[in-house]
């Protein structure tokens, strides 16, 4: 019998970036939809719980990166839909540049050889 894959823990701050990118890619979504899409994009390596996502969305809204409004979900239930704002797009662009720079720096540490540091 195959062991179920263990889900990864998302580093602090990364979930906000993933939520912003998901809204950038797919347009307005309700919180449950954002969570499921993040899981889907990760290849189901991440599990995003409501208790984790909704505080992130609230913080993003307070910071002006997203706006929300009430609407009806696909199954006709009342749901809060989130959309990216202009400020959110700028933040996403800056965070992507920061992320690219950070991953390049870390990659250098894995490429360097001891003799190169002598």
What does this structure look like?
The protein has four helices and three strands; from the N terminus they run αβααββα. With 118 residues, it is α+β, with helices and mostly antiparallel strands. It has one domain (14-117): Winged helix-like DNA-binding domain superfamily/Winged helix DNA-binding domain (Arc Repressor Mutant, subunit A), CATH 1.10.10.10. A three-stranded antiparallel sheet has the order 1-3-2. Helix 1 (14-26) packs across helix 2 (31-41) and helix 1 (14-26) packs across helix 4 (86-111). The longest helix is centred in the last third of the chain and has 26 residues, at 86-111. The radius of gyration is 18 Å and the shape is elongated. The relative contact order is 0.15. The model has no long low-confidence stretch (mean pLDDT 91).
Sequence-ordered SSE layout with sheet pairings:
Layout: H1 14-26, E1 29-30, H2 31-41, H3 50-62, E2 66-72, E3 78-84, H4 86-111
Antiparallel strand pairs: 1-3, 2-3
Helix pairs in contact: 1-2, 1-4
């Amino acid at each position: 019998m195959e062991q179920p894959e263990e889900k990864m823990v998302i580093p602090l701050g990364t979930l906000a970036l993933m939520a912003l990118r998901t809204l950038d890619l797919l347009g307005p979504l309700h919180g449950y939809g954002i969570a499921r899409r993040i899981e889907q994009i990760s290849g189901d390596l991440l599990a995003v719980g409501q208790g984790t996502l909704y505080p992130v969305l609230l913080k993003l809204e307070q910071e002006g990166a997203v706006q929300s409004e009430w609407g009806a979900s696909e199954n006709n239930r009342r749901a809060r839909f989130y959309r990216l704002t202009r400020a959110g797009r700028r933040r996403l662009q800056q965070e992507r540049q920061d992320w690219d720079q950070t991953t390049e720096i870390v990659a250098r540490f894995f490429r360097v050889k001891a003799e190169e540091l002598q």
